[in-house]
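Dear colleagues,

For the upcoming journal club I promised to circulate an example of a predicted protein-ligand complex. I picked one with cytidine-5'-monophosphate because it came up in last month's discussion. The inputs are reproduced below in full, followed by the predicted structure.
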Amino acid sequence: MADALRLTAPAKLNLCLRVGPVRPDGYHPVASLMIALDGLEDTVTVRRAARREVRCPGIDGPANLAWRALDALEAELGERLPPVSVEIAKRIPAEAGLGGGSSDAAATLVAVRDLLDLPLEVDALERAAARVGSDVPFLVRGGAQWATGRGERLLPVPVPGDLWVLVVPPVTGLSTPRVYAAFDRLARPTDPPVEPPAAPWDRGGWAVNDLWPAALACAPRLGAVARRLGAVGARHVLLCGSGGAMAGLFGERDAGAHARAAWGPGAALCRPAGPRAFR
Ligand code: C5P
């Protein structure tokens, strides 16, 4: 039996994010085409250990979502886990809307299940994931999913082809609750759509983020980032989740590579990733 297991934890992109009026529980109903990104990921290593430990630069211990993932596994199992240590190597920026902390938690769920050979099927892992955060079930599954509810209800959709994504790091970090609070002040939302858009991603309908005006109000400097992404040739420009990272979408690899070179250090050129292969 292995003593350690290492998994990658990819960033996510909301290729479309429609947001409805706030619910009584404080969450917002969403409808989102979510894709996992190949080209920007953290690495999560889990090991059997004498006591529980989560090590991650800047966010160690119980404050880390990976710690909450271990609690959620115990709640799903109805018993305590043998102790493990979780070590996270970060590449995905924080407060970026790229799901970094959520992806670390998702990778922790899968890695600990496999390391300890826990009797949990994928649907049980997804239930545990939903206890940790709205984006975590998606990051357990990966690939491309149409997400509804508060983001935890998932329907697989084809992974978009001919899509290259230039992710540029946040000029300023944005907290998700802060952006949603600005959305509540500024937007006049209606219920989000139930069905995914039928058109291919580059024909409109997808590259929309309803949180953009709220994020721009919180961080006006994002306007210049959006203009610069347009200037390096992006076909569509998107706020990533609740921000503050931004993404430029390209239909050809060369155009994406040219834009990355023009942008300079810090930008990552990504492709949509396939769904997670479970053991
Ligand atoms: O689910 P998660 O813990 O990641 O959500 C963090 C915060 O983001 C919530 O407390 C809420 O303020 C906001 N949120 C929301 N509607 C969603 C997802 C998140 O209002 N669908």
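Two points we might discuss: The CA atoms of residues 226 and 237 lie 6 Å apart. The chain is about 30% helix and 25% strand.

See you all on Thursday,
B. R.
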